[in-house]
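Holo prediction. Input below; ligand is nicotinamide-adenine-dinucleotide.
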Amino acid sequence: MSMEASQYDNELTYQTYRENDDLEAFHEAYDGAVQSIKADLGESYPLRIDGKPVTTDRSFSVDSPGDTTRQIGTFAVGDSSEVDDAVAAATAAQPAWEAMDPSSRAELCTRVADQLRDRKFEFAATLSLENGKTRIEAMADVDEAIDFLEFYSREITAADGYRFDTGEPTPGQHTTNLLRPYGVFGVISPFNFPLAILVGMTTGALITGNTVVLKPAEATPLVAHKVMDLFEEAGIPDGVLNLVTGDGPTTGQPLVEHEAVDGIAFTGSRAVGVGIERTFQELGKRGPVIAELGGKNPVIVSDEADLDAAVNGVMKGAFSFAGQKCSATSRVYVYENIVDSFTDRLVEETENLVVGQPTDRETFVSPLIDDEAVDRYREISTQARSDGTVLTGGSVISDSDLPDGRYVEPTVVTEIPHEHSLAREEHFVPFVTIHPVSGLDAGIEKSNDSEFGLCAGLFSEDESEIEQWFDEIEAGMCYVNRKQSATTGALVQAQPFGGWKFSGTTGKFAGGYWYLQQFMREQSRTRVR
Ligand code: NAD
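Structure of the complex:
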């Protein structure tokens, strides 16, 4: 028997327009926003410390993945000196921020959510241009950010800031038990959900009474500035939320190492996340490293599966946002008696996918984020050709109909041993390997034979297979018969997001009921009367 949770209504913008038979209005609003964002690109942006703009003598430029001739902007680089200033501002602002009633912090975050809802098309257009998401993917990123803000606001308010009067355990002793913030959090975010994940981690830290120094991914600083605007317009006090931009070694590392930074909320690659944990240990830092890391997400296709659903689910899971999701489907274990028919259909449907500009309505596979990702794609495609069979894809696209962007073909590979690095490591490009298996036990064994444990999928209509799989699969997010995507796409509250093993450090998931408490530590207070 399980307890029922009170329903949270997710922001579902695209679906709502579709249900209201009003998709033209969605497209019109998005296309209009793209035009006006394009007109505003190319500015210079400072750091934002203690409520003030701070310029430095170093900067970096960001271009648009779909058209690298388009400049997004020039952004100041903050190094250890500016990180010091930002941490000092956050430290000074923290006591007053903690002293605020939790419901007032929640009201501020709700105001940010309201603003974001009003400006959702502007934010979606910014994401398409800066990070290369299609309109539907970009709007889902915006929706999720709104959900994080509202869900965490609701939770902290319902919990009254996590404070319990525990009465008089023995005569004369009056006790209170409460959670208190650690102090100052560094929030370090990835490029691939540059709005939702950035907002989710930042809100988690702030709403629990911590102050924040935020370091967004170097590919996506513009949307971070727009988030700062929202918080400032909502009235966040100076110093409570500070923004320093720059790359990992220059800006992120000093933030992690700073002695006055009590905890880190990080989402990104396993290598960097594990490095941050190690730094905390080496420096003897005691606060939490709340880290969501990579994945190598397996799917099993049983001979009891609806093959249409399986083909569609694997294709969408592997190739939406060009495979640049931690939850992307990347290895597929198919019962050997159907592996040929499954693979043929997957290849056929993959070849029909439209690779194109993120802002074009019909695009499904969007461009890669940076040149390093294109190089990685080239490298693994070459390796796949020599060590296995590339059935479709494997090439960088140079098409005169497309602008000068980072476009690559969605790639399906077979004949790669399960033990091969192509089937074990995360590559973060549109690349999936197919492996025959003798049945469910073998499929589960191979699925679990990974250091990652983020998402997993199963396609089967057989109830006993489904039950066995749910019981034995080692993954944080498990999806059965998900035609819309075998492993990607999670809703705040209903599908909390996080990983087992090397896919996460805490076992508590973003958008779930046990997320916020991680930003706090317990204190019991006893007074004798
Ligand atoms: P990344 O690890 O390269 O970078 C993430 C952030 O860490 C960036 O802001 C980067 O500048 C910073 N960074 C890099 N080196 C650093 C250092 N030495 N010290 C401090 N900060 C440093 O990741 P990415 O390429 O931006 O994102 C893709 C990765 O994120 C993938 O591995 C993906 O699986 C993972 N991811 C996980 C989840 C999840 O919820 N589990 C969600 C999204 C992305």
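The pocket of nicotinamide-adenine-dinucleotide is lined by residues 188-193, 197, 215, 217-218, 247-249, 252-253, 256, 267-269, 272, 275, 292-295, 326, 426, 428, 454, 497, 499, 503 (CB under 6 Å). That is the main takeaway for now.
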